[in-house]
Write a sequence for this structure.
């Protein structure tokens, strides 16, 4: 009888936890380790599998290796938004020298040679990345059109936008993949560095509804990304800012908002929309979302 009573007390004590459904994945927004622009997100599914988005600059390779080692040194899927150095720098180094880290699959939307050559200052990093990718032997999913939906344990993702070969203004950023990630508790839309044209293409396309979300990664590190109309048309509750201090403050050495960046304009739009929840990587450090 005493044993049954103890069991009953134990079950009742655990009940609140049992009633709260476990989420399908945990997300970490990884802040820049060298206070530069960069995009780095790591996910762990409810069954422990790891997904990475971008990964930041070359100088953050060691940090990222350590982070992923702590999660088991195996990445089920690595999603690349676009081949700018602040998104693929660390991944390129890992592809060249994987050490103990195993990557099972890489998702990206490959630029044509013609598109690659549209940005002279960026093409060196991009060519280096593609060379390392081709030599890696890792399974690659190259998306030529949006719509692909995948599920890894409790984590779902859907590609809403891919490379836009026809857009030659701000060409690399405007060929960022736009990706929706969700589980049973939350949804997040990642805009990469999408510019006005890239954002508007998704906004005016068949995946418009998929842009509404709980958390929105503000495009291009918080400035000169998607249009005011884009942000004011879609619905979201909170912002993820992959943004270093000098971009957040628009301060290139002469004080707050004295630089030539447009972060304060984006911040004003968010205030006008009424967004109260902001996760700014340079202010908050590592942000974990369950
Ligand atoms: Fe970027």
């Amino acid at each position: 009888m005493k044993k049954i009573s103890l069991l009953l007390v134990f079950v009742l004590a655990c009940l609140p936890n049992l009633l709260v459904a476990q989420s399908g994945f945990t997300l970490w927004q990884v802040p820049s380790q060298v206070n530069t622009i960069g995009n780095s997100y790591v996910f762990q599914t409810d069954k422990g599998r790891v997904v990475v988005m971008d990964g930041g600059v070359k100088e953050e390779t060691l940090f990222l290796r350590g982070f992923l080692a702590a999660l088991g040194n195996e990445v089920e899927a690595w999603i690349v938004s676009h081949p700018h150095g602040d998104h693929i720098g660390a991944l390129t180094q890992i592809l060249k020298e994987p050490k103990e880290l195993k990557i099972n699959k890489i998702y990206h939307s490959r630029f044509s040679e013609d598109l690659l050559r549209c940005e002279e200052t960026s093409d060196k990093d991009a060519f280096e990345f593609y060379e390392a990718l081709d030599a890696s032997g890792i399974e690659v999913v190259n998306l030529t059109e949006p719509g692909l939906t995948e599920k890894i344990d409790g984590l779902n993702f859907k590609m809403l936008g891919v490379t836009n070969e026809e857009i030659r203004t701000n060409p690399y950023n405007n060929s960022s993949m736009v990706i929706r990630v969700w589980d049973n508790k939350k949804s997040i839309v990642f805009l990469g560095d999408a510019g006005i044209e890239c954002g508007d293409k998704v906004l005016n396309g068949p995946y418009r509804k998929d842009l509404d979300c709980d958390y929105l990664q503000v495009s291009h590190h918080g400035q000169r990304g998607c249009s005011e109309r884009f942000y004011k048309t879609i619905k979201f509750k909170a912002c993820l800012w992959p943004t270093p201090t000098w971009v957040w403050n628009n301060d290139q050495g002469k004080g707050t908002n004295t630089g030539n960046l447009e972060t304060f304009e984006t911040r004003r739009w968010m205030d006008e929309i009424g967004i109260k929840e902001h996760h700014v990587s340079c202010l908050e450090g590592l942000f974990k979302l369950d």
